[in-house]
Model the fold of this input.
Amino acid sequence: MSEPDTIPRAKVRRRRFSFTWIVPLIALVVLGYVVYQQVNRTRGTMITISFDNAQGIEPDSEIVHRGIRVGIVRDVELSLDLNHAVVTAELDPSAGTLAVEGSEFWVVRPQLSLQQVSGLDTLIGPNYIALRPGDPTGARVRAFEGRSSEPVLDPSEKSLLILTLSTDRLGTLQTGAPVLYREIRVGAVRSARLDHDSTRVLVEIQIQPRYAPLIRRDTRFWRSGGVGVDFGIFSGLSVQADSLESVLSSSVSFATPETRKPEAPAPNQIFELEDEPKDSWLEWSPAIELGAP
Done:
């Protein structure tokens, strides 16, 4: 009887690691990093802006600052509570510093009033979002509350003098109405609200820094604007009016008396807004040095 054939055994050789794979692997890692950096450089800063009314804003609407496009709207949707419109936008890479605390956004629409004519470019073109940047050194933020209209107060004017006037009615005063001294515009009406007990109207005005020295503790304010007509048989017809701007809209005028020891307004001082000036106020003519222009 013959012996059984010997079963052959496979010889296993250990594969040596090939350094030829290292170069492609390193190249792939470097390429991925370069692509990642390129995408980050071309991708802008994503922000969200909440508006009470975003009518006219849609994807691809522009965000404009100083007439230059600095961003684009990516999406518009309702908030979870259905009370606001939430705009998701992307700022251009070069405009990422605009996404800081204090930046203000509003939808530009055509406006025609006695105080201003603005946004007429949207009559023939799409609505867009304008912005007023905050302090570039401020904290970076990604969510903003949009305004319903363009802000009157420029945050860069930190030295503006803000005063409060008290009156029994608002009348035809509006935000942006001029504040005049000797028929020269030196400020504007900033806002109006009811007093805590609803018996008075508090009107906030802002005075340009150069004209702040005109305001003293005994300064008097009154309503101005419109045209006054007086006719007499012997005196004839006389017409009285303030500046053209105040003729077209209500405004606030003020006068300051001549005093030897002028006193600056007291902190939180509230001035009375009279319906008309006294004759003596119109005769006041103090020499007051203005601030630097």
Observations:
- The chain has two domains: 45-145, 161-283.
- Residues 45-145 form one domain.
- The two ends are 124 Å apart (CA to CA).
